[in-house]
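Here is one chain, start to finish.
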Amino acid sequence: MCLITWNNGRMYVPAKFAVTPDEAWQIVDDAGAGMLVITTPQGLASVFLPVVVSEDRRSIWSHVAKANPWWKAAGNTGEVLALFVAASAYVSPRNYPSRRENPNTVPTWNYAAAEVRGTLTLHTELEWKHEQVRALTHHFEQGSDEKWLVDDLDERYRDGQLQAIVGIEIVVDSIEGKAKLSQNRQEVDRLSVREHFEHGTLGQRLVAERMTRPE
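Its structure:
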């Protein structure tokens, strides 16, 4: 279940903005990449990476360049927080028809976000990294007429590239999601925000896609 109150540092999710676990995982999938955050003796450290989720949703896989010191700071079997944002846009009070009657309105921000907490394991095995990169590219090449395949590479070149990365596996402990989409506004305001966003910036259009029209 998604949390609806702040607890042990977890995401604050008011009831109006709560999503189901399936919806939270959809946010992760739609985002495609997220910020992985760890605690080190020197402080917080982060890295932004594309991810693929296992079919049973018990783990998340990625990889990082071996030259990136993040993985050394992470060590092995450490706690990690993964943050994902699938839609995000500023909402102006100008979008609220109700302000004609009540001008005391303020700006806000609409978004769909999820956070995953888990335990980190690093992988240096060539075959594990090969499978991870194969799964990652297969996931993101879906829908393409001509899919790019890892196995089309020259084997020596491919293995050289794999030697230059470190595999990342996150065993999932929990997931929380939040979709703040003007649910706390009057329906006329919510519909107006969606209509303004439908032909706006990419961020606005992504928010609009998540906002449902009234029946």
